[in-house]
Amino acid sequence: FIQVNYGVFMFDSININSLVDKTIYHYCDAHAFLSICQNKKLWFNDLHSMNDFSERHYGYEIWELSASQVISEEIGKMVTEDEKNKKIQELKVFLDKIDEFMHLSGRKYIYTAACFSRNSDLLSQWRGYANDGQGYCIGFDIDYLLQLNSYAVSVLYNREKQVKESVEEICHLIQLIKNEKWQEFEELVEMYCLNTAALKNSSFSEEEEVRLLYPLSVDENLKVNDILTNPPMDVKFRIKQNIPTPYIEIPFDKGAIREVIIGPKNPVLETAISIFLETNSLRDVKVRRSIIPYC
Predict the structure, then answer these.
(1) What average pLDDT does the structure give for the chain?
(2) Rounded to whole angstroms, how far apart are CA atoms 44 and 67?
(3) What is the predicted pLDDT for the residue at 7?
(4) Residues 60-74 pLDDT 10s
(5) Which residues pair with 27 in a beta bridge?
(6) DSSP for the chain?
(7) Is the CB of residue 40 less than 8 Å from the CB of residue 255?
(8) What is the per-residue pLDDT across 225-284, written as a single tens digit (0 to 9) for each?
(9) pLDDT at 47
(10) Of residues 203, 202, 199, 208, the one with CA closest to residue 14
(11) Which residues pair with 141 in a beta bridge?
């Protein structure tokens, strides 16, 4: 099974350590806000259930583009047609092997995520994730979240960078095949697949998303399990758009919450939220209201 090295980033641009701001924001409705503050747990949901319908499929699209570019760059170094044809056949064997392992990884794992934004007051986030502005935005200290057993990434939206960095990793994987380092190859293919969950279409770039990722395994009987935590966490299901979708709950330290922003359509008094937070042992949390004129 996948051996997640939380300190390794195959794509340089998704490295969470490059973030300057130490607070990231989770938009949610009132029920989720209540649950998060009372239970001190984050829900990690199946990526397939996210609002972007192209989740994970987009990462595979980048893989295909990058593989084509690897072939194009390599045959560009050849002189004769015979040399070019031989190089194409050689690369096809290597790329087919990577593709085979990627599909195997896709059948073995379900990637779950808890999603955040670097923007604390963004209208599209309020509308899409916080009950049309009637919910809340919770500011988390990123240093606390990095202590969780998850893989933290900064989402990359720049398509040129996505392909460039993917090409670099594909070339590395090809070298591992040539050297017959199969164990390292398999582990890095699985890490490559996990990293593609940090690639999104540029249409979503204003979200400035940060993700905490957690892979769940799917066994031969199609049962979903947690294999990374000991003892394993319970895998639960909820209905979303009439479909049962898996999720897990990962606890966080109560000091992780630093700020709460009240949605632009939420009439609650700031004092009421402060009382609620203090009563639930969430102290020194700044409470403010969205400044977006949306009603």
Answers:
(1) 91
(2) 31
(3) 47
(4) 999 999 999 999 999
(5) 137
(6) -----TT--SSGGGBGGG---SEEEEEE-HHHHHHHHHH-EEEEEEGGGSS-TTTTHHHHHHHHHHHHHHHHHHHTT--SHHHHHHHHHHHHHHHHHHHHHHHHHHHHEEEEEEEEES-SS-HHHHHHHTTTTTSEEEEEEHHHHTTSSSEEEE-B--HHHHHHHHHHHHHHHHHHHHTT-HHHHHHHHHHHHHHGGGB--GGGGGG-EEEEEEEEEE-TT--EE--SSSSPPPPEEEEETTEEEEEEEEE--GGGEEEEEE-TT----HHHHHHHHHHTT--S-EEEE------
(7) no
(8) 998 888 899 999 999 888 899 999 999 999 999 999 999 999 999 999 999 999 999 999
(9) 87
(10) 199
(11) 23
Pick from 206, 244, 44, 48: which is nearest to 127 by CA?
Answer: 206
Total count of residues recorded for the chain? 295
